[in-house]
Amino acid sequence: MIATIEAICTGTARPFNGAETSAIMKQPRDGAIQILEDGLAPDEQANRKVHGGPEMAVHLYPLDHHDFWRGELGALDLLERPGAFGSNLAVRGIAEAAVHIGDRFRVGSAILEVSQPRKPCWKIEHRFATETESRGMVALIMRTGRCGWYFRVIEPGEAEAGDTIERVEIGREGWTVARTFDAMIAGKASREELRELSGLPRLAPDLRQKAEAKL
Asked: Is residue 22 situated within a structural domain?
């Protein structure tokens, strides 16, 4: 699996909804961007308790999904922006059903590892509600499984738009990002699936603990 990085996006925390701040408004960057253990430099997250850190260092939201959302929501200007969903990497030809927990990718000179699906939050809801009268974006993501995912950084490096993203190692076959999202985020896991997920080494620790707690 190999694709081209169409854009690398970063953001700064800024007023977003009343007293709340957010760095979801990611913008494309020119030139080489450092990829460090905690993510891109520079890049910010307003609430480090739920975004950022080693287990959510880099976010990829497939650009192909933008086409789907245009069909659902119309031709929004927001969907013309590669960082519309707060993602760092804008890539086509890679999606949740073909990517596994623990897959490793070479991104520029860095090595990244898939750690978990991205759980949609109220900030996506708010961002899209300001662009369209249609609400319920989080519910739509939950229903369709178009969630994107996070990487942890195995080997720091740097990358820029035009570089390739290439899978160099397959993680846990059978546990795609799509299946993990359905099981853990959408809450449809069977008891046997929870048992498997609780012992999945490359799954983010908080999701392993959540699976174990549900057992």
From this structure: yes
Residue where the block lists tokens 């494309």: 28
Residue 63 lies in a domain: yes
Instruction: Pull the structure tokens for residue 133.
Output: 């009268």
Alpha helices per DSSP H over 98-162: 122-129, 137-144
Helix or strand holding residue 108 (H, E): none
pLDDT digits (tens, 9 = 90+) for 75-130: 888 899 999 898 999 999 999 999 999 999 999 999 999 999 999 987 788 788 76
Say if 214 falls within a structural domain: no
Q: Which two tokens stand for residue 164?
A: 């390739």
Residue 116 burial (CB < 10 Å; 0-12/13-18/19+)? buried
What percentage of the chain's residues is helix, strand, coil (to nearest 5)?
Answer: 30, 30, 40
pTM: 0.91
Total number of domains in the chain:
1
Q: What is the pLDDT of residues 155-206, one digit of tens each?
A: 999 999 999 999 999 999 999 999 999 999 999 999 999 999 999 999 999 9
> Tokens at residue 135, please?
């609400």
CATH of residue 69's domain is: 2.40.33.20
Range of the domain at 101: 2-172
